[in-house]
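in:
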């Protein structure tokens, strides 16, 4: 039998070749990402980037989010909307109600306390209820049994084979797909995504601070966050994950719904994620969640996040014609230019075919086009720091040591201190480390 393009071995070899090329490209992009945080070069960017740049960036990112979310939701709009409705009722309509919860402690024994349990677990409760509903409807034969039918993915048994196919235990390691390769085109795509991810992360940091009612992140916290993101992207590329690591706006939406923002909680969640990656059958169980249920949960989380993004304009003067023009132009042109690029076969004619493809790829990215235009206009059109919202985002060393408004913030800048000994942070060497704070000996930190 002669080999051809449909031969499974040839297809798998091509897949592995692309995966290896993507690995090296991601690893290098991760190094660049981490370098920005390690050296503090992102501090230069923070002087140029404010709410009027971040908000259009984040809004244009939703253009990419809506399409994949619709693929989950359109499987069954009824189940998806049921998931949304249950979550909205729990965390919005019942936000002022505290559920009676039985508890027992050695000191006080058994008693009933009032706690907004339904709000904290609103999304989880909504998923469980509608997952069970899908199970009942699957048992009753309401959903189609034909795998080719779009509604098939509403069934709870649509992907049960994934559990049996997954091994009990697996441990990813560098080189499991062969020698790590590299691709210039893949690296360019990764770098575009990296630059957008940096802006996305900056906006997410400030949005998360706003949801958690804590002060805006200081420069060392932003640097440290980007450093860790870059290191995790490098690790993702090394083990062949096929994607970079960045902030996830849906999590900020989840914080807004549950009101849970404890760092210890997220450390615990991180440990669980690692365990899910090692024990394959447990992670496969969550893959079996029906598509419309998952889509409805994503709608809730990103819907809340969308509102948080818009709230960043609160610190700007939106009655200013300057600011209204920057927001409007950057979003409209950010949508118009990529739409034109995708409609024309060859939008760029420079005489160099490779350059034409690269330029067309850049112009076809709404987020990139809108971000560059918004940043350019915000930094070239005259306007005060207060009107631009930059004053509210800028955090100086004096701000970190000043007394905070307890009516506005639940906690102070200590939430941004890394989990390191205080003595270590008081070393004079910390003055020259961009991603760590320097605690002067005269400064009181948590009463120390």
């Amino acid at each position: 039998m002669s080999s051809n393009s449909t031969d499974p071995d040839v297809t798998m070899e091509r897949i592995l070749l692309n995966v290896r090329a993507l690995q090296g490209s991601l690893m290098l992009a991760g190094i660049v990402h981490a370098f920005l945080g390690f050296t503090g070069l992102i501090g230069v960017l923070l002087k140029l980037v404010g709410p009027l740049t971040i908000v259009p960036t984040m809004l244009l990112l939703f253009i990419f989010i809506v399409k994949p979310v619709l693929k989950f939701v359109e499987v069954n709009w009824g189940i998806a909307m049921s998931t949304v409705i249950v979550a909205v009722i729990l965390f919005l309509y019942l936000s002022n109600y505290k559920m009676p919860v039985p508890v027992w402690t050695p000191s006080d024994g058994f008693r009933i306390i009032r706690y907004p349990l339904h709000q904290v677990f609103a999304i989880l409760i909504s998923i469980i209820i509608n997952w069970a509903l899908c199970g009942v409807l699957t048992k009753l034969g309401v959903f189609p049994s034909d795998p080719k039918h779009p509604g098939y993915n509403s069934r709870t048994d649509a992907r049960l084979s994934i559990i049996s196919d997954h091994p009990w235990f697996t441990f990813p390691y560098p080189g499991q797909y062969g020698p790590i390769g590299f691709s210039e085109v893949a690296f360019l795509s990764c770098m575009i995504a990296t630059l957008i991810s940096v802006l996305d992360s900056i906006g997410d940091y400030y949005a998360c601070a706003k949801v958690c009612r804590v002060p805006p992140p200081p420069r060392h916290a932003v640097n440290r966050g980007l450093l860790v993101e870059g290191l995790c992207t490098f690790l993702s590329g090394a083990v062949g994950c096929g994607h970079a690591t960045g902030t996830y706006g849906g999590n900020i939406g989840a914080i807004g719904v549950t009101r849970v923002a404890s760092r210890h909680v997220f450390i615990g969640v991180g440990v669980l994620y690692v365990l899910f990656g090692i024990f394959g059958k447990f992670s496969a169980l969550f893959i079996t969640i029906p598509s419309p249920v998952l889509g409805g949960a994503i709608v809730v989380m990103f819907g809340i996040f969308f509102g948080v993004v818009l709230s960043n304009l609160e610190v700007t003067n939106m009655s200013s014609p300057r600011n209204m023009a920057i927001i409007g132009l950057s979003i409209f042109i950010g949508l118009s230019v990529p739409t034109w690029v995708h409609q024309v076969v060859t939008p760029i004619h420079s005489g160099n075919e490779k350059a034409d493809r690269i330029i067309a790829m850049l112009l076809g990215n709404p987020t990139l086009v809108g971000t560059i235009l918004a940043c350019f206009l915000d930094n070239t059109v005259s306007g005060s720091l207060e009107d631009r919202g930059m004053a509210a985002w800028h955090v100086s060393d004096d701000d970190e040591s000043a007394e905070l408004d307890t009516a506005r913030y639940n906690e102070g800048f200590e939430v941004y201190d890394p989990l390191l000994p205080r003595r270590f942070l008081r070393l004079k060497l910390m003055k020259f480390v961009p991603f760590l704070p320097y605690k002067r000996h005269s400064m009181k930190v948590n009463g120390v």
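note: Confidence is low (pLDDT under 50) at residues 1-9, 443-448.
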